[in-house]
Every structure is written in C-alpha cells, then in structure tokens.
User: What shape does this take?
Amino acid sequence: MLAFLLKRLSMAVLVALTVSSLTFSLNFLSGDPAIALGGESATEADLQTIRETYGYDKPIPVQYINWLTRAVQGDLGQSHYLNQPVSEEIFQRLPTTMALGLCALVFALALSIPLGVLAAIRPNSLLDRFALTIAVVGQAMPSFWFGLTMMLWFAINWRILPVSGSDSWKHFVMPSIALGYYITPGVMRLTRAGMLEVLRSDYIRTARAKGVSKFSLLFKHALRNAIIPVVSLAAVQFGFMLGGSIVIETIFAINGLGFLAWESIQRADLPMMQAIVLVLSFFYIALTFFADVLNAWLDPRIRIG
Amino acid sequence: MSTLENNSLEPMADAPVLSPGKVMLSHAKSHRGLMLGGLVILTIMLVAIFAPLLAPHDPYAQVLSRKLVPPVWFDSSKATWDHILGTDHLGRDYLSRLIYGARISLLIGFSAMLISGVIGTVLGICAGYFGGRVDMVISFLITTRLSMPVVLVALAVISIVGSSLTVVIWVIGLLIWDRFAVVVRSATQQVRGLDFVASARALGSSTPRILFSEVMPNISNHVIVIATLEMAHAILLEAALSFLGLGVQPPTPSWGLMISDAKGLMFFDGWLIAVPGTALFLLVLAINLVGDGLRDVTAPEDRN
Amino acid sequence: MTNTTKPILSIRNLTVALPVKIERANAVQNLTFDVRPKEILCVVGESGSGKSITSLATMGLLASSLRVTGGEIEFDGRDVLTLDQAEHNALRGDRMAMIFQEPMTALNPAYTVGDQIAEVFRVHRDYDGDERRKRTLKLLEEVRLPDPERLYNSYPHQLSGGQRQRIMIAMALALDPKLLIADEPTTALDVTTQKQILHLLKQLNANHDAGIMFITHDFSVVAEIADRVVVMRHGQIVEQGTAQEVLSNPQHPYTRALIDAVPRRAQDRDHVVSEHPVVIDVQNLNKTFHTAGSMFKKSRTVSAVKNISFQVRRGETLGIVGESGSGKTTLVRCLMRLIDPDSGAINISGVDFASQTSAALRQHRKDIQIVFQDPYGSLNPRRTIGSQLIQGAINFGVSREEAWDRVYKLLEIVQMPKYSVHRYPSQFSGGQRQRLCIARALVVNPKVLIADEAVSALDVSIQREVLKLINDIRDRLGLTVIFITHDLRVAAQICDEVLVMKHGEVVERGGVGRIFTAPEHDYTKALIAAQPGQDWEIPMMAEFAPQAAARKVGTL
Assistant: This one.
C-alpha cells in the first residue's frame, strides 16, 4: 500500500510540474510579453523597464524556476489589473466555487447513483428507460442554456428563486443543478454498467446460492464492488466541474473563481488567469490522487497486493 | 461414430456470408435511436449545405425598423410570416441566422473532432500496442491533459492569440483528444493480447501491417463511437466559448453567439434563447443518439 | 452400489425452454432422474447438453430468460418449482448448496473468505459472532486448509485456485445440506489439485449424508467418484445407470462414442530413435521476468524458463507437459520469438532464432508456426478467412495465384470446404476454427508446428478429431510437431517423446511408454498418480456389436 501511495504521489508531482510549465508558457503565446503588457505605444525604454520589473530579461528557464519557486511559496504573482497579489483574490473567491462544486456534486450523485442502481436492477424497464432519457438529454443540453432557461422560469416567471448573485443558499440552487446535471449522465451510466456487470458475475451467483437476501445481494455484495470505479469518475468529474464552473458562475454572477477567471480574461490579466488555471489543475491532480487512494482502500486487491 | 459434433457444413454452403459490416448494418436498421438521430443529423447537414437556398433573408442584413419581431406563433401584431422565427435585436432574420449557424456548428464540430481524433487515435494505438516506455509517456501526456481545465485553458489561449474560426477549431481540437487516447489505448491493449496478432507476427507480418490490418479493424468501432461523442462535445464547447464572447466573433451567425446576444433580452423575449438553444440541443442530442446507437450495434458479437 | 433409500431429489419430466429457438426448442427436455442421500450422481455431457441448466433450475438460479415449461423438481418432499423466491432462498445454502466451476471468480473480491463463509450462518441461523467464527474455523479445518486463523482474514485474491475451491466447499457444507450440487468443480484446476479436491469430496461424502450431484464432461472423473451416472446430450438423457454399468458396458452409441474419445493410457510402445535429421535444436534457453520494480518496490525475479535444451527430429512429435505456472507458455513464446529469451540458442535448420535481430528474423519466421489454445481469439473477427489464410504466403513473397492454390489445398487437408474463404470467423464452431488455424499456420510451409494447448478448449469428441488431424498432417507433410499440453493423457495419444516441466525446468524426459510405465522423477510420478480414473478399465468400443447398442436406445 505504501509503495502504491509513493508511486502515485510521485506521478502527481510530475504531472503538476508539467502543468505548471505549460501554464507558464502562456506568457510567450502572444510573442513578447513586455509588449503585451506595455501596449503597442510603449517605447523601447518603457519595455526595458517592464522587462526588468517582471524579470522577462532573464533566460526562460531561469524565469520559469523563479516563477515556480515563488508559486510554491504561495506567491502566484501580481495582478496587472488589481495591482495586488493574485493569491489574495483567488483565496477569497475559492470557497464560493468550492461550495458551488460540492453542491453540484451532491446533487449529481444523489440523482445518478440511485437511478443507475435501479436501472441496473431492472434493465429495459420503464425506470431504466427514464434514466436513459435523463442521461441522453443531460449530455445534449448546453449547460449555459439550461441555466438561462431555469433562470427564466424559476426566477423571472415564478419568482421562487433569486436571479443571480451568491448571497444565500437560495442563490446556489439553480447553479448547482445546472452544473451538476452535466455530470449526471456519465456517473449514472457507469453505475448502471458496473452494477449490470457485477450482477452477472460468478460471485453474485455464489451469494445467491448461499441464500443471501435480495437486499443484501444488491447492496452488500454488488454495489460494494460496482461503486469502486464510480468513485474515480466522481473525483474526475468534480475536477471538470470546477473547471467548467466559469460558464455557470458568469451566468449567475456568482462571485467565485470562474467568474474571476472571466473577469481576468476581459481585463487581459494574464498572471491572474495563469494562477487560476494552476490552482484548478492542482486541485484536479490532488483530487484524482485522493480518489486513487480511496480506490485502493476500497479494493483489497490493490490494498493488499 | 467418431463425429459427435454436428460438424456437417452442407447447409452452410448456401447460408449467406455474414460479414461484420452486414451484420452491423442490419442491426443498425432496426435501432430506433440510431435511425432517428441519423435522420435529424442528415436534415441539419442538408440545411447547412443548402443554406443559401433555404434562408429566406440575408443573415447579416440588419433592418433596425423591424427589430425583435416575435415568431409567428406569438399572438402579436408584429409577428409575420416573412420572419417565421422573428428577428433579433438588430432586426436580422432569426431563421436565416439559425440556418447559417448550423454551418458553423457542424464545421467546428467536425473539424475539431477530426484533429482530436487523429491525435488521440495515434497516441492511443502507440501506447496500447507498444506498451512499456511509450505507454508510460503517453499515459503521462493524457493525465497532464486531463488535469488542465478545458474551458478555462481554451478561453485563456483564445484571449491571448485572438479569436477566429481557425483558432477556435484548433484550440478545441488540441484540447479534447484525451477520450480518444484513453479508449483507443485500452482497446488496442485488448486486441494486442489476442492470439491472432501473435499469429500475424509469426507469419512474418510487419508492424505497420499488423497495426493496419489486424489492430485497426478491431478498434475502429470504438473510434467511430468516440468520434460522434467528441463531435457533440466540440459543438457544445464552441457554443460555450461563443456564449462567453471568445468563440466565433460577431456578426458571424453562431448558435452560441445568438444565445449570448439574447441574454440581456431574455427576460422580455424568452424565445430569443429558446430558439437557438433548442437547435443546439437537437443537434447534440441527435449526434449522441447516433453515438449510443453505434455503440450498441458495433458491440463485439458474442462468442457463440 | 445399489441404494434403495428414498431420494432426496427427484426430477420428473423437467423441461426448460430456450428463449429463442437456436438449434432446439428446449434447453432440457423431459428429464427424469433421482439423487439419493449419500450417493454421488454424475451428470455427464459435452457443452450444450443442458447439464448445468438442470442444476441451476434445482437451485432456483436459472437466468430469467430461461423458463421451466413442465415437470417437477421434488426436493425433500416439496416441488421447488412452486416455491417463491423467499422460500427458495431459505433452502439455498441451508438444505441445498452448490459449488461452481470457476473458483477464481466465484468469491467476492471485496470481503475476506472467512466473512463469506460466516455469512451462511448469518443468513440462516441466529448464531452470535463468536459462534459464527468458531464454526467457520472448524469448516476451514474440515476442508483441510492450513492455518485457518490466518486464512479467515485472507481475501480471495491471496489464495490459489485450489484453496478457493476448498473455501467454496466449506461454504457449501456449512449447514450440512441434504443436497450438494458440484458443477464441474475441478475443470479449472490443475490435475494434481483436481485429485486433492476429488479426494476431499469423497471423504466428505463419507462423513456427511448429503446426496451429491456432480456435473462433469470428463469420464475419467466419473470413473473416479461416481456411484451412478446420467449421460446427457442435447438436453435429453441418453443413458443412466450405476457407474459400473455405464462405464464398463455402455449401451447408447453416444455414451460409447464419448467413452471411446477418452484419451487412453499410452500403449507400451517404445520410443524408437529415428534416423531423421534434427530440425529444431534448443540449447540452454533461459528467460527471466522481472516484475515491475520501481523506486519504492522491490523488484521480483521469476525464472520462467531455466536452462532448457532439447532436439526434435523431422516427423516426430515432442510433448511438453506441465501444470499452470510451469513455464511452458513462456517457452513457446521464446521459441516463436514472440518474446526475447535472455540466453541460449534456438537452431532451426541452421538459423539461430534466439540471436537474430527481429528484422532479420522475419524472413525465417515461416519455418516455425503455431496454433493457439483459444479458437475464438486466434482468428481476426473482422477479416475473411481467405484473407487471413493467404496473408502468410503473401508476406513471404508467394504470388497471389500460387498462394490461393495453397490455401485451397490446405482447406482440403484440414477438411474444410472451399467456400470458407469468403466467410468470417463468427460462422464457424470452435473445432472448425482450430482447423482453419492449422491451415493458416501451414500456408507458409513451416518445418516446425507448435500446438499450444490447441485442443484444450474443445469437447472431447472434437478434441480427438483435431488430434487425429495433427497426426495425419505431420505424417503427410513431414512436419515436426511440438505439442504443449497440461494433460498427460492427451500427450500420450500423440507424442513420441515427452518433456515434463515444473517451475521452468525440465524434470524428466523420455519416450511416452517409459514415462507412463516407469516415471523416474517424483513430480512425474505425482502427475501420473493424479490422473483420474486410474482403475477404470476403459472398454474397447470395437468389441461391442452395433445391435447391442441399438437395443436399449431411448428406453431410459
């Protein structure tokens, strides 16, 4: 188990390093970053000052190492627009996005896992078809359009929920549903497929031959094994969701990381964008790492090699 | 007495040759979702191709005196058969913009899928077939790609490079190859372990030959299924990017852009987002139905 | 042995319908037989005979697509077909129990084996935790598992196949059931493990009152343990009687054919050293595997092939016999250069296969060809048979015309029709696919043909035909054959000489007759002693008059 942990951890660190260098390379996508910063009208002297201030005059590897060293110490750079460290702003906004992501995840899991299990117990039944319809529709629905449509009905026509903002829990209902609904199909399909496969397996037949009750058969013997891959998927999807929350936060004007990202893009605030990409990527890496650990813990075949 | 199994091949001489293709086709014909989805896609494709013939107006022509005309089914004095789906805030014919918007969605969806498909399939086959170090490197690439948030990275890159149709296609294409790679990799690993691949090596087939005639035909079904799903994915991404103002640039008619334009007016004229949204939904739904259908009909036949 | 006690299980006119009429309407038709307490009834049949369906119907575990359309299954005085799920559940695991073929997949990977056995008590009795544990440990002892305390907390993946099957048996015996159904419980096991499990079942049979319904395809196993025998074919019983009657005096032609197909002990033919030239000469071959060693994990090294040398002369068949894990598969893969050996030489007509670069090797690959075990994985499902057969010849620069000529000739030799070339593998049965694989291997005119467990996945009757075909081809084309098998009996039928492998090493080598009659190494002795049905004098079918066979057909 320890060997597995260490191996997995070193992989995570390696991925994180690669992601950070990719993020860093965004600096050079537009050509000379000093010109991008100073504007077309900047004089050569202005540019030189900018280069020195931001360290663009040093060789790229040195710049990267400096940038990385600072990032590891929590200094993700200075916002061009806000003129303050980006980390302050980011950590102020992060909890909102986390809350939104968690709500969406809970909504998605609460909908998809029971539906997936029920659909697998009675394949081709009415319920199975209903679940399949939800999955197909969910995959085809653009989340921003779904969000806007909900807003139109629940906030404008029926006035039961606030239109936008992030002041109370009511503000999070629609965004959570819009965000969570998008990952529901995948989780549901995997739960269904996993359950179907497990229910066909030899050890379920063994359990039936023992006279195990239907309930215990489904939940103790089948779901315990079928849920293992779902854990991984849920973690991966949670990571995707945080990345995708930019659309939802923009629509509902939720003051989170996604909204900040959108604002920064509008303001051409590159350090802020880089920092957000980095934070979300690292979060994803950490998330999948913990999912793998959880997986190993759930599956004795990995836990006890 | 020695022949116990019903080994007689006589009836088989007349039995039809069941090629995998033929079997799939016959399954496909009886698959309702696949046929329905296919029909919808075909219709939208035809509409996109013959857009100039079908669109009643110039999608770019602004008639400010006739802005925000509601669709004909609205009980309004402004509604007119001249603008079946009404006009937008600049007085442009909504139906015409919808028809031309289909071109953008299909073009971007298809091109981005092609780019990501080529990248992902090549990486997946190499990782799955050669294994070892190659697999390690490619798996690492996949993990790295997965850990970067797609929408955010796309937005950041487009905002720096500047937006155009080509940029949008390439950015999306370069970002969504992961599922191709993951699926093709594991499918190739499976096929590679089968004895007919070992036989081919023993019979002196070269590696490219084995990849081409033994591996490829057996993973193509997976590639096709993922291709449909990723095309849908790309279409949704384009819409989201355009919606956020960093995809296709105005005045090009794009469904995502139409929803974005209508955002501020939707509290008064809900149909402005309902119309392009429904079109987008239908197209993606149809593609997904075809993808699911293909998955069903190309599932490997049972052993018996 | 006659047994007049009241049967514990009476199946009367049982008919189970198939969901779609594939070849026949019913999976099982009009089945009638009894199982009495304390007896072992063997139900024998080839694949598709309906033997498993009968047992699943009794247990109430039939797939929902299969429907019982007629008859009764009377267990302990009650027709189980009339029971509802809950009532049937109460019987299962308590009064009737079952063990299955695949011990590797039959246990839940998420729970310890102890908990899985204890669950039987939890479901059917009100014992407290301590009592459950105590009884479970006693069971583990009864099925002769070492160190029950430690084993209780083991997970299935930590145990071997034989150990898992013992766990399954312990689970089945937990509540001393009246009926024990064993569905091919030893088929997936090595022959030495099979012997132990059969022995255990016989012992348990002596100490418990359960009637055992033992399902198998192997008449040697029947000879080993059966009191009575039921022979099934296409869902119907063709013959039943005491083991003595059926084994020594089979009446139905099908039973006779099955018994006739049982691999016989080698006649004491002596191995004559032929004067033909040596075709393949293997010297000191070694292959070691290093399991994924990383920075944090100690790498493990397994010698799969240790210093193996042998020669085979033209027209001879060398058998390589070993149980799972003996290294025979690695050896084959090295010989084919599908994997690279670490050291040693493989000389085939003057070319050392072990030292060639893989590019240089390609032009020599035609000299050695292989037929694999799994008939379903060894043909590409997406290509026509013709394009797969011709590929080899084309690779070696034969013109298309000549290649097609060869293909048609070979199809004739393997007794497959010409039109096979236009078809896809899915339209052929397992035996037919193996014939096609043989043809594919022969298309490049190899000098050596390796048959890697090539008949193991086939029913006995078909097994025999394919073996005969390989023999014919060897004689006709002057091939050299290396025949890999786990089954000494099969090796005895076809080989001139046998190598016995264990843990990557050759422990014994000799002529077939000598190996069987005077084995020298302990492992060889153990292998031979483990063959089931040793005491059975297999009757020679040719001695039966055909009329005698016709007489009793259908009367049972």
In short: The mean pLDDT of chain C is 86.
